[in-house]
Design a protein that fits this description.
- Strands 15, 17, 18, 20, 25 and 27 form a six-stranded antiparallel sheet that branches. A five-stranded antiparallel sheet has the order 7-8-9-14-11.
- By secondary structure, the chain is of the alpha+beta class.
- Helix content is 17%, strand content 32%.
- The chain has three domains: 209 residues, TIM Barrel, CATH 3.20.20.80; 91 residues, Golgi alpha-mannosidase II (Immunoglobulin-like, Sandwich), CATH 2.60.40.1180; 138 residues, Jelly Rolls, CATH 2.60.120.
Length: 469
């Protein structure tokens, strides 16, 4: 469209080669707004035949991809953007394999993402999985995967954009994915003249400054074996080199008592230090069985996310299935960290902007267990949070810890208002005191919850809270 005509892709390829940057292309193979027989959103109204779409496929997609992989040197990634499975689109599996085989023929080392339309489970030759837009990882995966995310709401430039994500939020997204073996691909939307909006530049520069100091905890790092949501203070990444392992504790919430509790590691670290301190002086810690208590300085070293390094002479041994000690002390026994269950198992995620918490829907007699390691003997208090909307006195629950037992008659919790004058009436989740138990010595303890429910009634369990008196 320029006069004289320019090959913008060739100019970009030369610039990448000059500066040692790998070149990747985004290619929209499914949706096309230009070709007569391409599929765009309006085709849901007007329709298109498979024969017409294949004409577009052979005339445009195959020929353009051949051109891209032939005329511009080494291409590291072809990033496709069909965000649903091919079975829900007009594209056939045969067409997708035709395209994939063309890429493998022309550039065998070019990476292909799952948004080609083939899942990794369906075709192991797909190089990495791409989650939904701005969908962060929730579980550790043992194959490459990524999130495509935005700095704001829009993917492209939007003159009236006002939903900018904070630097802290973007760093947490990056750290979260790396802690699960994933990647975070951050999209930016330049202006028509190629300029980058200030809000994007500001966040990228600040993330870069953070990575200059803490990049060791991100680059070439991977997930650790503990459950990713085990600690409420942040996330853990790991790296093993020359037989030695480093765990990187990314502290999102600097504790007011200046102490980090790490649950589940049986091995004693050889050293613990702040990653931001170039001299790496050791900081004080105490290791007891599977709990590491780390003494922190009064002030967090980083305004966004501070990183603590635990060094081990070999890969650390762990104890799985434990409830992590919360920041500031105490244990939250939730639906997600149950170690054993029998009966109702349906878990609903938080809703209504978090005003309705995560809950376990209990509709029959059920039993649950949690396992904790308590390193400080003494008197411990137990509370329980749930919602119950019936009027009766025949539902009850029992909490057992060793030979100690606490009983509770389930009570109606009623309704509450999440936001006034907003038609925001929701079930109320109330805390009830269960009582106290005595812990005489440090060790592992199983906490058992038995719930008895009348038929056709529902208890929405949120959590049990256990803390030292």
């Amino acid at each position: 469209y320029t006069s004289p005509k320019r090959d913008i892709i060739k100019e970009l390829a030369k610039a990448c080669e000059k500066h040692g940057i790998k070149l990747a292309f985004y290619y929209s193979h499914w949706v096309d707004w230009e070709h007569k027989y391409g599929w765009d959103h309006t085709k849901e109204l007007s329709g298109i035949t498979e024969q017409e779409y294949d004409k577009y496929w052979q005339e445009k997609v195959i020929q353009q991809v051949r051109e891209l992989l032939t005329n511009y040197g080494e291409i590291s990634i072809l990033w496709f953007d069909m965000w649903i499975h091919h079975s829900r689109t007009i594209i056939t599996k045969k067409q997708l394999f035709q395209l994939k085989e063309l890429i493998r023929e022309l550039q065998p080392n070019c990476l292909i993402n799952s948004r080609l339309g083939l899942s990794i489970e369906e075709d192991s030759d797909i190089d990495f999985r791409t989650l939904g837009d701005n969908q962060l990882g929730k579980e550790k995966l043992d194959y490459p995967w990524q999130t495509a995310g935005t700095v704001a709401h829009s993917w492209g430039y939007h003159a009236t954009e006002n939903k900018w994500k904070s630097t802290t939020s973007l760093l947490k997204s990056l750290i979260n994915n790396v802690s699960l073996n994933g990647n975070f691909m951050l999209n930016i939307g330049p202006r028509a003249n190629g300029g980058i909006p200030y809000e994007i530049t500001d966040r990228l520069e600040k993330m870069g400054e953070w990575l200059d100091v803490n990049g060791e905890s991100i680059y070439k790092s991977e997930a650790f074996d503990l459950r990713t949501d085990m600690h409420d203070w942040g996330k853990i990444t790991s790296k093993t080199e020359n037989g030695k392992t480093k765990l990187y504790l990314h502290v999102f919430n600097w504790p007011l008592d200046h102490q980090i509790r790490v649950t589940g590691i049986k091995s004693t670290p050889s050293k613990i230090y702040l990653l931001s301190d170039k001299l790496k002086p050791s900081i004080q810690f105490e290791q007891k069985e599977v709990v590491t208590r780390i003494q922190l300085p009064f002030k967090a070293p980083d305004p966004y996310v501070s990183v603590i390094v635990m060094e081990f002479d070999q890969y650390p041994k762990i104890e799985k299935g434990l409830v992590g000690e919360s920041i500031g002390g105490g244990y939250a026994l939730t639906p997600k960290n149950i170690s054993y269950s029998q009966g109702s198992t349906k878990i609903l995620s938080p809703s209504k902007f978090g005003s309705i918490p995560e809950r376990l829907i209990i509709e029959e007699d059920s039993n649950y267990e949690w396992r904790v390691y308590i390193d400080q003997p003494g008197t411990y208090l137990l509370d329980i949070s749930y919602s119950f909307q019936e009027e009766n006195d025949k539902n009850y629950l029992t909490v057992k810890m060793g030979d100690q037992k606490l009983e509770h008659e389930i009570q109606m919790t009623g309704k509450t208002v999440g936001e006034p004058k907003s038609a925001w009436v929701i079930d109320s989740y109330n805390f009830f005191k269960l009582g106290e138990v005595q812990i005489d010595h440090s060790g592992f303890y199983d906490i058992k919850l038995d719930v008895n429910v009348i038929k056709n009634q529902t208890i929405k369990f949120n959590r049990i809270w256990l803390e030292k008196e």
